From TrEMBL:
The protein's required cofactors: FMN
Name by which UniProt lists this protein: NAD(P)H-dependent oxidoreductase
Cleaved signal peptide residues: none
The keyword DNA damage is assigned to this record: no
Length: 208
């Protein structure tokens, strides 16, 4: 299936049929998200995978409650770093040096540029917003990967982030939930959206 066919095929699935996404497909989707680009390559977020049905029951309660959360098989939580510390930038630079077999001091300019960019966001809220932008690129990449794997997915902002953080104990891990995505398979009989035409602005309006 071409990428455009896959993107036509996918839709934000409202009802899922309980079928489990196989591990190898889940791994492709997670790896695609991990390979997403981010500003400076810092990736100031993590992805938390929730498969446990009892935990997803609790999460559904703080998410509208939307049925896909328990009708799907996996929930991906894109969670930004709660704070971006100088030490995390140093760790990242050390990782780059290690992976590319470079002397650390050859990356001094890179490290300073990252720290300078972060200081442009003077409040924790502004830094969280910046990190969230990066997390959404990973979300988009995961959505495309799911479509090409013929796995249904629902991106979701319809949840209470603070309550979700509490359910998953994210604060202890230095994380904050930003956006979530359910993976599973569409329930064609019960999902009224399954047969509806995809609606987007026409090219003439969209491309300027
Ligand atoms: C960031 C984001 C948040 C969304 N939140 C929800 C949500 O909470 N629940 C839901 O059913 N759909 C949600 N959607 C799905 C959109 O409504 C859907 O993508 C849009 O209407 C376009 O339709 P399509 O994806 O089916 O082509 C969200 C989509 C995005 C990108």
């Amino acid at each position: 299936m071409s990428i455009l066919d896959a993107l036509q095929w996918r839709y934000a699935t409202k009802r899922m049929n309980g079928q489990t996404v196989p591990q190898e497909k889940l791994d492709v989707i997670l790896e695609a998200a991990r390979l997403a680009p981010s500003s400076f390559g810092l990736q100031p977020y993590s992805v938390v995978v929730v498969a446990d049905p009892a935990l997803r029951e609790r999460i559904r309660e703080v998410a509208a409650p939307q049925p896909q959360i328990t009708e799907g098989s996996h929930l991906l939580v894109f969670a930004t770093w709660n704070e971006i510390h100088a030490g995390q930038v140093d760790d990242f630079i050390a990782h780059v040096a290690d992976q590319r077999e470079l002397p650390m001091d050859s990356l001094d300019g890179y490290r300073d540029a990252i720290k300078a960019a972060i200081s442009q966001h003077p409040t924790q809220e502004a830094r969280l917003q910046w990190a969230a932008k990066q997390a959404y690129i990973a979300l988009g990449t995961a959505l495309v990967a799911a479509a090409t794997e013929q796995v249904d997915a629902t991106p979701m902002e319809g949840f209470d982030p603070q309550a979700l953080d509490e359910v998953l104990g994210l604060e202890r891990k230095g994380l904050r939930s930003t956006v979530i995505m359910v993976l599973g398979y569409r329930d064609i009989e019960n999902d009224r959206m399954a047969s509806l035409k995809k609606v987007r602005w026409p090219r003439e309006t969209y491309l300027r």
